[in-house]
Amino acid sequence: MITTQPLVSLQHIYKNFEGFQLEDVSIDVYPGEVHVLVGENGSGKSTLMKLVAGWFPPDRGEVYWNGREIHTKSLPDARKRNITYMHQEIQCFENLTVAENLFFRELSRHTRRRGLFDPNLLIAKTEQVFRELSIPIAPNIPFSRLGFAERQMVSAAKSYISDAQLIIFDEPSSAMSQPEREVLFHIIQILKNKGVAIFYISHRLDEITKVGDRVSVLHRGKITGTTSCDNLDESSLIKMMIGEVHKERYPRLPGQRGKVILSVSDLTFEPILKGVSFDLRQGEILGITGLMGSGRTLLANCLFGIISPTGGEIQVGDRAVKFSHPGDAMSNGISLIPEDRHKNGIFPKHNLQRNMTSATLRRFRRKLFLDELFMNELTQQYVDILKIRPGRQNDLIGKYSGGNQQKVMLAKWLMNRSRIYIMDEPTRGIDAASKIDIYNSMNDLVSKGAAIILISSEIEETLGMADRILVLAGGKIARELKWEEASKENIIAAATTED
Amino acid sequence: MYAIERTRIIKKELEARGQIQVQTLSSLLGVSEVTVRRDLERLEAEGWLTRTHGGAVINRPDGQSALSELLTPHQDPRDHDGIASVALQMISDGDVIMLSNGEVNRRLAARLEERSNLTVLTNDIACATLLAQQDSNRVVLLGGTLEKDELALFGTMTLANLAKFYVNRLFVEVDGISRDLRLTVNSQEKADLILEAKSVAREVVVICPASRFNHTAFFRLGDLNFAHRIISNSNLEDGFKAQIFASDIPLYSSVAAFEGSE
Fold first, then answer.
1. Neighboring chain B residues of A257 at a CB cutoff of 8 Å
2. Are A471 and A179 in contact (CB under 8 A)?
3. A465 closest CA partner among A443, A445, A433, A487
4. Chain A touched by B239 (CB under 8 Å)
């Protein structure tokens, strides 16, 4: 039921953020249409949709609503205009029931009988909605008991009972099983029939034709193509998503692979990681890549004892181990250089030396004191090796450039003298020179018998540095690729398709 | 500074280090490189030292020759060792490689004893001598006219020899990489040799210590894309690192990140 006038139309939108921009984006959606947005991590899909939902205004360009230009200033504004943005992480009231959450915003409108709130009516109405949408959830259980996919369904149901004219789904299916996805698609079909316009952000190429009417591809903040979902050719879509690949510029060395030093079998963390198995050999850089929500970081956290897996086994060398704390992993020769140094890594208000020595204070302990001379010496040694600038021991780390902060983080974990280094996004948002230093440090580690698990959403980097690549999709290893056979095309194809 | 005083300092430095660069002496003494070269010539005539490419090595009174000094690994700067270590990792047993003449490649030649069944082509006498001591590797010295300053062989004979071979990997030691990333060497003969060698090599690895960046030698070899890979030191200026990365050529350096494992 596509009408002639789009519900929302964006024309030549520009928006600048630090380190990222939307450039000359034009996109629209009609009532009763599902417009799918695809693109790599960081291509600007969520940013664009937040702009549509009115989280922030564009720097330049126009937004039309039913043909009239509008200036959405805030979320309540968007709500009045009946735009619903469905986040990847659903915000709900954990201690209320499913039914109460479902009708929360309309509680007074739908659930009164003779002026009084009627809990039975609430349940009955919820049951009715769930029946219409084929959602298999009991209305009276607490929301806190719902899993990720069920939350998404309730959230979708919420948009069904609201009078939303435009609904934005931000990767709703990334952690859903096949039956759960069928329910979601059913809900979307009903919404379409009601004449609701839908933007649907997806990472999964296999669902585009199932759910979408049109698809647009974003690449580095620009729309590289919009096309109808009928007769969609997956490989040309992948080409639109990728852009140029510069795999050659990474200083990869062909390593001398040794014996297996880490063996993971059937590792599971309900409901996201499902039976992950792999071996890691001495002298190897093992790349792990996958889309957001594929379980990359979760896997790293399981391997480092930050969270305990619900199933499966980890072997270090030939010993089976169980980590209940990062300290356990560290004493088994594992270090994790976590993603997002601002959140997990650095202490911005402390100086360089404290930051660098903070993970290995044990090494500097002399009876009741810390051996400051040794701390100075070793810190200086790493400053020199990694060319950390300016590199004075008393410098506040918060003032350092991203590249130098990242090198301090690296040094902090190198001091742990591990055999296995898990590096989660080790070069995100840092300058090219620092990247090169970090890649060459990785080479040094593996050439001396350590092993690295390189987790990166930057596919090019994984292609450039890793001897072997595991592609995660939906918490499983979708594909294993040797360096010689790996390409951006087959990685994206594996990462965006499940089962 | 008087010549006699300069001579005293040069002798002292040579005693201490065994070898020294013209550049180093020039800045140490505060005189031009031309003056230093003249001093070195005189000292060579007196039998004190042997001049080498870009510097000089001491002649020990116990009869050790300049050559054997060159071959003594501990006298090479640590920077060169780092580069040699990285280069070594690009070489596997059984490879056919070529080393152009140069100080870093001499370090690499010494390290090749860690590999076996290599066939190594070189025009550098010191490299060949080092390789001759390695039982499991074969060395082919490309004949030609001896350039005494560099202890290396050049000329049409060398080029003709070279044409008979095919190498997996050519390690080219260059004498300068300019700000705009042009590769240069010190002599026309060297440039000719390297260009010929490139035509028989599957892959070209350019070796250039950080100290030779932002420096232009006299003879042009080519642009950066002459190289498939570049090896330098990690203290290379950030600007060069970023430029090379942007040129899509991998830059390797030795970063001693591994302290050990517990």
1. none
2. no
3. A443
4. yes
**Nearest partner of B221 among B180, B201, B192, judged by Cα:** B192
A3 pLDDT higher than 70: no
Question: Which of A185, A209, A242 is where one domain is finished?
Answer: A242
Express each pLDDT in A114-171 by its tens digit. 667 778 888 888 999 999 888 888 888 888 888 777 888 888 888 888 878 899 998 8
Residues of B with Cβ-Cβ distance to A441 under 8 angstroms: 255, 257
Domain C-terminal end among A211, A242, A273 = A242
pLDDT score for B243: 92
Are A246 and B248 an interchain contact pair (Cβ–Cβ within 8 Å)? yes
Residue B143 in contact with partner chain A when CB distance is under 8 A = no
Residue B114: alpha-carbon gap to chain centroid:
20
Give the three-state DSSP class for A84.
Answer: strand
Tokens 């990359």 locate to A296
Look at B249 and A248 and tell me if their CB atoms are within 8 Å: yes
In this structure, is residue A248 part of a structural domain? no
Residues 210 to 229 of B: which have CB under 8 A from any A CB?
229
Of B47, B69, B91, the residue at which a domain comes to its end is: B69
Interface touch A418/B246, C-beta < 8 Å = no
Residue A389 one-letter amino acid: R
Between B244, B247, B257, which is nearest A444 by CB? B257
Write the CATH number for A389. Answer: 3.40.50.300
Domain residue limits at A388? 260-495
User: Is the CB of A418 less than 8 angstroms away from the CB of B261?
Assistant: yes
Total tally of structural domains belonging to chain A: 2
Residues B61 and B108 grouped into a single domain: no
Segment A379-387 mean pLDDT: 94
Give pLDDT < 50 ranges for chain B.
63, 73-76
Find the residue in A nearest to B240 (Cα). Answer: A433
Residues A459, A487 within the same domain: yes
The helix/strand/coil state of B87 is helix
Residues 6+ apart with CB under 8 A from A464: A246, A247, A248, A249, A250, A252
Q: Do A200 and A35 form a contact (C-beta atoms < 8 A)? A: yes
Cis peptide bond prior to A57, omega within 30° of 0: no
Q: Identify the domain containing residue B124 by its residue range.
A: 77-258
Residue B177, CB-side half-sphere exposure with 13 Å CA sphere: 27
User: For residue B247, what is the nearest residue in chain A, using CA coordinates?
Assistant: A249
